[in-house]
Amino acid sequence: MESKVPVGGKHPAMMRRDISSTFIEVSESLTEVSMSQDGEFKVDDGRQQSSLMMEVASPVGLPWANGTKPSWLERTDGLIVDFPHEKKSGGMLLITLVNEDASSQWEQPGVSKRPKWLRAILAANKAHVQARGHAMVLRWKPTEPQLTSWQRKYCDENKKSEKDCQMNFERENVNWEKHLMLADYLKSPRNFSHVLMMDADAMLARPDLDTVARMAVELEKTGKELFTSSEDWLKYGEKRINGGVIMAKNTNFTRNLFDDLWECHRNYTLFKSRTLTGVIGCGSNEMISLNEWMGRPGIPEKILLTSGKRWNRGGETLLQTNPVYADEDMFQKGMKDPELEIMHFMGGAKGAAVEAICNGTRNFTLEGPDGYGCSL
Fold first, then answer.
1. What percentage of the chain exceeds 90 in pLDDT?
2. Which CATH superfamily is domain 60-358 in?
3. pLDDT at position 360, please?
4. Residues with Cβ < 8 Å from 19, sequence gap 6 or more?
5. Per-residue b/e over 95-131, b at no fewer than 16 CB within 10 Å?
6. Residue 83: which residues within 8 A CB-CB, separation 6 or more?
7. What is the DSSP letter of 20?
8. Residues with Cβ < 8 Å from 54, sequence gap 6 or more?
9. Does the pLDDT of residue 7 top 90, yes or no?
10. Where would I find the H helices in 268-327?
């Protein structure tokens, strides 16, 4: 089985440019991505130790589409699924983020294959949107500079090195990138009708339903513009937005909202907002800030808060019963629960994705056991 790797990214120390529109075939048995002197990605035969060592994000091992990239792709993003050729504008887009991580949870140095849990989820989501005529885009490279001025000030005051500073704020900054990605594609000249952002460890769990379109229908039915889901699969989580699944209808409000959120994060405090009256701070993670936005006057009228049991259920409910879960039946029903549409394998539940996607009775990936998602 082979994966497609977009070529043309440059090392951060060099001048940056977009990924080339050329895609190359790279055998999954290869183990090294290195950088030529002109900054191009190249794949060696695995007999030499990688000089890159995955210290920066890499496009290797992700299920890229064949062919020329569409002009509407933002930054260095890569295409997973394109729209049908007859669809020239509009449409619903699924975006997801697979960035570098210091713990090597999402990719490992010198290994071209991504972890099986990640491959399984990406393959399932790819199959889902492809069958329904939607598109899917993946951001593999974080936007630079990642560190904000207020983060650098904190690190300087606490005598942290650049590397330690980056690692200290990595999780928060990667999560904030999701809001930037939403802002990017809501303002795209492609004029998408809806943009759905899902964490890379969240999967569309109902092959028999067009979940993406169904979320858009919920917005239309309620007259809302932003679809969010609660953590009501946990006791007392019914009023708390989880930031891992967000669908934005393409409106002035949602475009302004994600511009506001990103600017608030970069500046620590937003004194003049497009969507709020008054001052608001964003010194923590993106989920806390979105929940704070939800509490401001005029905002709840725009945001739909749905049940996470259906639209964003925690994957740990597949592993055991627990007094903190709102409903013990979630464990008993598992992936066969008719009330479930999106399963989110967050935190320590990532390993459960392989069992759920590859070893169950339903063919979520439409590839079989030897495909990208479920192969060893």
1. 77
2. Spore Coat Polysaccharide Biosynthesis Protein SpsA; Chain A (3.90.550.10)
3. 87
4. 6, 7, 8, 9, 59, 69, 76, 78
5. bbbbbbeeeeebbeeebbbbbbbbbbbbbbbbbbbbe
6. 91, 133, 134, 135
7. P
8. 33, 100, 104, 107, 108, 109, 110
9. no
10. 286-294, 308-311
Task: Output the pLDDT for position 172.
Answer: 95
Listed residue (165, 170, 171, 246) closest to 202, CA to CA:
246
SS3 percent helix, strand, coil of the chain, rounded to 5, is 30, 20, 50
State the first-to-last Cα distance of the chain, in angstroms, to the nearest integer: 11
On the question of pLDDT at 25 being above 80, the answer is no
Q: What is the mean pLDDT of residues 361-374?
A: 94
Q: How far apart are CA 205 and CA 357, in angstroms?
A: 9
User: Do residues 244 and 202 lie in contact, with contact meaning Cβ atoms separated by under 8 Å?
Assistant: yes
Look up residue 63 and give its two tokens: 């299920």
Residue 27 backbone dihedrals phi, psi, to 5 degrees: -65, 140
Classified as helix, coil or strand, 34 is strand
Tokens of 288: 């806390």
Beta strand extents in 11-134 (DSSP E only)? 23-27, 32-35, 41-44, 78-81, 92-97
Which single residue is written with the structure tokens 């002035």? Answer: 252
Taking the CB of residue 186, how many other CB atoms lie within 10 A of it? Answer: 23
CA distance 84 to 160: 49
What's the rounded Cα separation, in Å, for the pair 309 and 325?
A: 10
Helix ranges (H only) for the chain are 116-132, 149-157, 162-168, 170-186, 211-222, 252-267, 286-294, 308-311, 329-333, 352-358
Identify the band that residue 355 occupies on the pLDDT scale cut at 50, 70 and 90. very high
Tell me the domain boundaries of the chain: 60-358
Per-residue pLDDT at 100: 62
**Can you tell me the distance from the alpha carbon of 271 to that of 85, in angstroms, rounded to the nearest whole number?**
44
Q: Are 187 and 274 contacting, i.e. CB atoms less than 8 angstroms apart?
A: no
